[in-house]
Amino acid sequence: YMNILSLFSSPCASMLPTPVEDSQGGVNQLFSSSVQSPARFLRELHADPDIQAQLEAEREREGTYECTRLGARNGMSEVLSSSLHLLSSNERVNTWVLGIARFVAVLMGVLLITVPTLLLLLESDIDVSFLHEIRQTPEFEQFHYDYYCPLRRWILCKISMVMENLWSD
């Protein structure tokens, strides 16, 4: 029973600092001693041949790692530059890639213009026969009630919140 109490009351378990007597020199002795001065400690470290050998080995490892990393980067850049040169030198590949890029750009432009325009026409009150027929299809009704109406309400709600914030300030 006494042994357990001594474990709990040991100075190592205490969160409070351990008192130091000034008669023994205290904290000032740690910093005033020439043996423990930082400058002397660093001189001793630099004079130690084992530590110098370890530092030199570490410098060599870092140097070889850096050379390997730069070599890999140079190798990758050479591969990329050669493949870019191959693509740019071949006129048929160049025109084919440009043709595909133009086709994709035109297709995206047409979709970005026609889909919103068709949606606006279908949601408007214009009474044209083909629009009326499209409005009667179950697919359009599902789209209208499941997607368009909630999106419209959300956008109008956000706009009204912004307007209220602008007018309230």
Automatic annotation (TrEMBL):
<feature type="transmembrane region" description="Helical">
    <location>
        <begin position="96"/>
        <end position="122"/>
    </location>
</feature>
<keyword id="KW-1133">Transmembrane helix</keyword>
<keyword id="KW-0812">Transmembrane</keyword>
<keyword id="KW-0472">Membrane</keyword>
<protein>
    <recommendedName>
        <fullName>FERM domain containing 3</fullName>
    </recommendedName>
</protein>
